[in-house]
Structure formats: structure tokens, C-alpha cells
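Support request from a user on the community tier.

User writes: "When I paste my C-alpha cells into the form, the page sometimes reloads and wipes my input. The last time it worked, I copied everything first. Here is what I submitted, just in case something in the input itself triggers the reload:"
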């Protein structure tokens, strides 16, 4: 059962920063972006040096573009704080919300009173320096502290052998399965994707911290051109999460007593109401199917039941959006209709706001702070995910205090239910007739199709993973006609399965 508490975790301040210099080699490194975001969060809270000096927990979201080693220690020195505990996370876009959920538990248990969650990426500058042949010269300090979070590899050897593991492959596969399950034609689906993307791009255009603020229209986003080349069918480049950004964000999470003691005004607080974490079947090859998320459906239902609020009552949503399928599928699992007028993103979504590694959701929560300060009776729902639609963290936030205090939802019982969901066995060396469950066509940097990636079922019900090799005409045909449900033949060559459509 969820645990109630009289101690209230509160987010008292949020800070965001975006560094977009004319010469990207002059951009700020992640450590400086984190410092800037943290200082902005302290200013936003109405605090200052005293607030940093009082921090007892410093949690840094994994920095992908550079290995600092002891990133929390380096940041603490710049901020002038001496936390009793530092956390540095594993990879995964779920981690910012998972951190907030965890730290709310710690606040309620009395193990933390003042915590800082912060992260940043500077891929834009790191790549520019690499292209120029110039070393970044950014710091490294060894650390022996184990990272916080689930460190299991996100891709199996079998998946990697078949080129099914990278997000630019797996998310298009989920998109195609979701389309087929709804009976949409390829033409109608292209229009749906373009219209959804345009709505997100328009939100990003109004966000001062977004990386892309040009508000591309549906035609531009959905039309394949040399600039907007196809990456993984059906997603052209403009629909893929863009990692090449310099962005940072920070949140200050306190218990309400500490916030009052520091003189921080309650009219600027945002209240976490409840949170939940769950993972789907860990490897993509083992999913129940590719058009549902049983873990998100069950976790979302338990979360909403715990707070006693229907999904229709939420005025503010930010559902993780690395590719267009992610928020739309999560919305379906949460009971949000496809024609619901509410935007599924506050920030503008990763392909348009920007995809700062694992730290996007810190920006989403920071954006929600401003929304709920202006809408004290409103509620917000944040969803974050990591790996191949694998790791999920969700939370409810309010502009007013939660009636029953912070509630942690789910736990071992929820995860045990998800883990017990049946799934087909995988035939690692598959031979015989089979039918496609889902697929994509992967394109090269020149825009030409290079290979197909297929997941399907053999006639005996076992699942197989396979590649499709053939002339360009075969691959192009796979993008002109629906492939889900198409029969063909599977053969094995040196531990790699190959599929030939009939």
C-alpha cells in the first residue's frame, strides 16, 4: 500500500539554460551549464549562497557527451556546497523523474531535507571541437562510487547482431506496429505524424530554452528532402530526437519545513503528489507485443487511482517524446484519446526542444513549475522513459499541496505483475515460414535505404529477429506498402537471420 506522510516534499526552484553560440567550439561545457542551471534554480527559489550551503544531497543526471568521473564532486566545488551524499545516475531518459521520485521518498523518510537535481549536455560543442581536431580539455576526476540506477545493458547480444537496438531502429518499429494495430493506411499515418510534429514544433517555438524555435510546419516536417532525409522509416530526420544541443536544467527539492526555515515563499512551490517507476520486459525482443506498454498502462492506472484524479482532469502533460511514437503510445496507455485537444508536451518535445541526453525530463519538470505557479488549482502529469521504451517513471504534480501527502505507488508488486506477462520464446536461429510483427527500413546518411529490420513470428509461434538485405527496389517497396502481417521466409546465415518477403 502507498505510504502517507505529513512531511511534504516541495520543488522550490527550477533553472534552465541553453547555450547556442555562433561558433559552437566556444560553447560552455556541461559542468558550466549545470552550474548555471543550479544558480538559476536558487535564484528562482528566492535563495542564494545559504541555500547551496545547506544542500545535503546532490544528484547529477548522467552526462553522455563527456566522462567527468566525479561529476557531483566537481559541481559541488563550483557551487560551494558540501553535500553529505552525492548521486550520479546511469543512462536513461527516465532518470530525472526517477530521481525526483526517489528523493521525495528520502525527504519523507527524513534522510534528506535539501536536494539538488541537475544535468546538462554539450554535444553541440563537443562535436564541433572533435570535427576541428581540438581536445575539449574538460576535467576528469576518478571516482569509485557506483552509479545510481539500473545499470543493466539495454540491448541483448541477439538484438545487436540483427541491428535492432538503436533507438533510431526500435522506435520506428514501435511506430509501425502502432499504426498497423489501428488499421491506418500509410498515407493517413504520414499525415498524422506530420500534424503531431507540427504541434510540438509550435510549442518549442514559444519556449525560450528550446534548441529549435523556427516552428516548422507539417509539410516541412513530413516531406523527405536532402535536408530532411529519411532515417528509420517512417521518421525523417526532423522527427528524431536531436542530441546535438547545449542545454542544462536543475531542480531544488526540499522538505516544507526546511523551505520555511530558509525563508522561501510558499507561493513559488510546486508539490509532488505521487510517483511510480516500472520497466517493461527488459529486452525489446521479449515484449508482449509492439503496440502496447503493459507496464505503463498498469502503473498509470495505479498512479491515478492513488491520487483519486481521472486523466481527463490533468491540465498539463509532458509525456516523454524522443520520437513521435513515445508520447502518443504512452497517452493511449494512460487513457488519453487520440483526438484529445491537450498537448502531450510542455517543452516542445526532444526533436524540437532538444534532446540533452538523459536530462530532458529535468527541463520538463522545470517548465511545469512555471505552469503550476500560474495555475494553483491545476495538476500536471510527467512521464519519462529510458532505453527502448523500457524504463518508465511517472509522477503527478500540483500547484496545491497533496491532500494525503506524497505517495509512492507500485513497488515490487507492480513490477512482479509486469514481469509475469507472457511473451513468445525467441528462436535465435530461425528457419522456415514467418510473418512480420513489425519492421523498419534503415537509411544511410546519404538518404538511401540500406537494410530492413524485422521482428516476426514463425508458423510455430516463436518470435524471430531478422535483417532484410536486397536491392534498393525491395527496400523501397517496404516503405510503399504495409509490411505488418506480410508473410515470407526466414533463413539463418552465421547466426544472423534473414527475412525475404513473399
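"...and here is what came back when it finally went through:"
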Amino acid at each position: 500500500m502507498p505510504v502517507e506522510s505529513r512531511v511534504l516534499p516541495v520543488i522550490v526552484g527550477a533553472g534552465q539554460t541553453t547555450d547556442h553560440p555562433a561558433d559552437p567550439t566556444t560553447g560552455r561545457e556541461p559542468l558550466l551549464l549545470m552550474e548555471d542551471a543550479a544558480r538559476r534554480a536558487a535564484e528562482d527559489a528566492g535563495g542564494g549562497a545559504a541555500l547551496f550551503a545547506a544542500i545535503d544531497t546532490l544528484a547529477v543526471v548522467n552526462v553522455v557527451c563527456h566522462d567527468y568521473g566525479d561529476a557531483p564532486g566537481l559541481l559541488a566545488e563550483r557551487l560551494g556546497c558540501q553535500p553529505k551524499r552525492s548521486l550520479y545516475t546511469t543512462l536513461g531518459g527516465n532518470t530525472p523523474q526517477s530521481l525526483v521520485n526517489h528523493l521525495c521518498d528520502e525527504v519523507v523518510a527524513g534522510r534528506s531535507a535539501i536536494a539538488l537535481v541537475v544535468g546538462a549536455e554539450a554535444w553541440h560543442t563537443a562535436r564541433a571541437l572533435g570535427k576541428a581536431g581540438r581536445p575539449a580539455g574538460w576535467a576528469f576526476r576518478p571516482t569509485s562510487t557506483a552509479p545510481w540506477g539500473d545499470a543493466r545493458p539495454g540491448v541483448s547480444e541477439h538484438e545487436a547482431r540483427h541491428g535492432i537496438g538503436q533507438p533510431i531502429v526500435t522506435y520506428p518499429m514501435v511506430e509501425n506496429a502502432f499504426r498497423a494495430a489501428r488499421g491506418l493506411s500509410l498515407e493517413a499515418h504520414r499525415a498524422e505524424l506530420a500534424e503531431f510534429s507540427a504541434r510540438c514544433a509550435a510549442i518549442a517555438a514559444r519556449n525560450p530554452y528550446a534548441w529549435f524555435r523556427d516552428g516548422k510546419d507539417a509539410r516541412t516536417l513530413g516531406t523527405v528532402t536532402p535536408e530532411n532525409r529519411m532515417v528509420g522509416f517512417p521518421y525523417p530526420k526532423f522527427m528524431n530526437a536531436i542530441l546535438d544541443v547545449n542545454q542544462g536544467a536543475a531542480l531544488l527539492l526540499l522538505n516544507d519545513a526546511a523551505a520555511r526555515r530558509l525563508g522561501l515563499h510558499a507561493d513559488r512551490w510546486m508539490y509532488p503528489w505521487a510517483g511510480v517507476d516500472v520497466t517493461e520486459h527488459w529486452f525489446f525482443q521479449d515484449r508482449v507485443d509492439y503496440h502496447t506498454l503493459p507496464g505503463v498502462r498498469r502503473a498509470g492506472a495505479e498512479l491515478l487511482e492513488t491520487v483519486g484524479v481521472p486523466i481527463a482532469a490533468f491540465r498539463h502533460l509532458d509525456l516523454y517524446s524522443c520520437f513521435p511514437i513515445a508520447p502518443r503510445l504512452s497517452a493511449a496507455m494512460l487513457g488519453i484519446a487520440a483526438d484529445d485537444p491537450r498537448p502531450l508536451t510542455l517543452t516542445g518535445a526532444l526533436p524540437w526542444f532538444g534532446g540533452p541526453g538523459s536530462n530532458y525530463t529535468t527541463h520538463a519538470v522545470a517548465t511545469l513549475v512555471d505552469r503550476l505557479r500560474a495555475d494553483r488549482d491545476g495538476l500536471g502529469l510527467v512521464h519519462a522513459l529510458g532505453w527502448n521504451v523500457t524504463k518508465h517513471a511517472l509522477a503527478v504534480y500540483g500547484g496545491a499541496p497533496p491532500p494525503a501527502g506524497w505517495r509512492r505507488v507500485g513497488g515490487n508488486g507492480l513490477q512482479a505483475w509486469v514481469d509475469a506477462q507472457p511473451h513468445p520464446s525467441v528462436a535465435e536461429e530461425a528457419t522456415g515460414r514467418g510473418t512480420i510483427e513489425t519492421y523498419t527500413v534503415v537509411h544511410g546518411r546519404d538518404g538511401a535505404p540500406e537494410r530492413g529490420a524485422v521482428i516476426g513470428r514463425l508458423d510455430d509461434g516463436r518470435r524471430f529477429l531478422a535483417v532484410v538485405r536486397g536491392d534498393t527496389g525491395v527496400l523501397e517497396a517496404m516503405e510503399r506498402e504495409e509490411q505488418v502481417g506480410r508473410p515470407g521466409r526466414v533463413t539463418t546465415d552465421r547466426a544472423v537471420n534473414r527475412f525475404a518477403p513473399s
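Agent notes: The reload is a front-end session timeout and is unrelated to the input. The first helix runs from residue 30 to 45. The CA atoms of residues 113 and 258 lie 6 Å apart. Escalated to web team.
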